[in-house]
Amino acid sequence: MHQSSPFNHRLLPYLLVLPQIAVTLAFFIWPALNAVWLSTRREDAFGLSSEFVGLEHYIAIFHDATYTRALVNTAVFSTGVTVVSLALALLLAVMADRVVRGAMVYKTLLIWPYAVAPAVAGVIWWLAFNPSIGVVAYYINILGYDWNHLIKAKDAMMLVIFAAAWKQISYNFLFFLAGLQAIPRSLIEAAALDGASPFRRFWTVIFPLLSPTTFFLLVVNIIYAFFDTFALIHATTSGGPAGSTETLVLKVFMDGFVGLDLGGSSAQSVVLMVMVMGLTVIQFRFIERKVQY
User: Are 258 and 148 in contact (CB under 8 A)?
Assistant: First the structure.
């Protein structure tokens, strides 16, 4: 009779996870703790001296009109990016799922934008919509709308929303397409035999089965809009005009690295982290109940 040998390497499991633990501690836990520590201190511009001020920075940011403006901008921006990127990605995934000839070429072209660096994507959109030299801005003006994101806050917000959504559509497309291809065709064919229209088949059969994928992408896209769009916004509008596209993550950079207010920017980063954690908990607490696994 074959007998299994006992596992004597008690330290091996810990050694295998040690690299991941080291990366997490070095790049996530330590920076977060350091931000909390800096948020309770006031430092001079050269970092030579500091003093403990407690919650003074937290109280100050909530009495700052520019912070309130950045908070509103972030809410509008994150909502717009999430809705636009998810809706267009789902539409493209449904269309790609029906393509028979040239399907691989079609899917590859849709995935390409995800490989573009955020800063490069921002420059591309800035050039395309530049009111002086932009090709897209030229045709928009021909259609009768005076596009100028350099002086119009509404145009600037639309530009960063669509630029960030364009960058994220490829990521969402991959997951939606995988979810669509995992749905048994027999269910869709049964609904068709029962007389359900294509729209009704999608809304009552396909979309409910995609709810786990949609929920996952909802969480990912909100986190993306809050954190991963800094380079794109900075390259496109730099928060202008007059702070109309300055989001919370961009304000952290501007106050900390440009204004050299290390304590205030650290407090802002802590508040931003708590906001995202709170939104994630709310989504898992309330929205996940409607997900059909």
Answer: no
Quick one: which of 173, 178, 175, 206 has its CA closest to 88?
A: 173
- According to DSSP, the residues that pair with 52 across neighbouring strands are 41
Confidence of residue 187 (pLDDT cuts 50, 70, 90): confident
Strands (E), the chain: 41-43, 50-52
> Distance between alpha carbon 240 and the CA centroid of its chain, in Å?
20
Cα–Cα distance for residue pair 232/119, rounded to 1 Å: 5
Q: Which CATH class is domain 61-290?
A: mainly alpha
d(CA 18, CA 291): 35
Residue 41 DSSP SS3: strand
Residues 14-52 pLDDT 10s? 888 999 999 999 988 998 899 899 899 887 767 677 888
Residue 94 CA to residue 103 CA, distance in Å, equals 12
Q: What is the crossing angle of helices 103-111 and 153-181, to 10°? A: 140
Rounded CA gap, 65 and 76, in Å?
A: 17
